[in-house]
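A quick aside before the break. I want you to see a complete sequence-to-structure record at least once, exactly as it would be stored in a machine-readable document. Don't worry about memorizing anything.
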Amino acid sequence: MIQFLLQIRKGLVDLINSFESMLKILFLSKFDFQIKNVSQNNTKLLILANGPSVNNFLSSFTNFEHYDLLTVNFFPLSDSFKKIQPRFHCIAAPELWRTGVKQEYIDMSDQLFGKLASTVSWHMYLFIPFEARKYSRWQEPINQNESITVVYFNNTPIEGLKSLRHFLVDKGFGMPRPHNILIPALVISIQLRYKEIYLAGVDHSWLGEISVNENNEALVCQKHFYDIETAASKPMNYAGVRHRKLYEILHKFYLTFKAYFEIEDYAKSRNVKIFNSTENSFIDAFERKKIY
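That is the input. The structure line, written in tokens, reads:
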């Protein structure tokens, strides 16, 4: 009886979440699926995230020419960005384009987009949410580089019934809650119809890096391959305007790891294979496989 009641409860929750997702799409999403206009060079895609393990990967992997490459967030600040010349780059953090955020995020944004504009000399697609289109500051340097094609996508959170979720994601109306840049990167990769997607640098090893100081501030040391020696414990930002509480950090991580299982399920329904090639990665949703 208890199991039956739990199933009824889950069904009702899925129906409510489906209805809420439809409302979010109606008010937040744009009905312009731009990703369909993006071309491929190879049949396989390699997503390079920014985890500490990327340094070892970049020093040992040599077959980049057999894969289209997708980098994320602040990867362009590394020397490796120009060397590997990725076909795609994805940015999703709202503090990088919104106004009214702390000055440190404005400085980070200016540095990132300025570096993209001055570095990219090959044809590259820049994926960024539709919301960013309303803000001009980040666009000014990018518009000066004709090698960069901006492609907007909907990052509207979609939850609810599985069949409806898959249909809405496939149409580009949204995705599982994008609490980590890997989520939109993966969804976009599947929408691009790659049949094999490999992941490198997706360590996600933050759980052991959480602490709380004497001022009751929740801190996380988020190490990247480009700042391993200088990374320090600090508060996690919330849309660039305040710091997250510990329960908010844990909830963010919960939603992130949960989303990967939803993406794996969606990928299988589209006959797409996702392989995690990151040693000691905390992600438990994707098949482990070395990349050659």
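Two observations worth writing down. The chain has one domain: 2-280. The CA atoms of residues 57 and 200 lie 7 Å apart. We'll return to this after the break.
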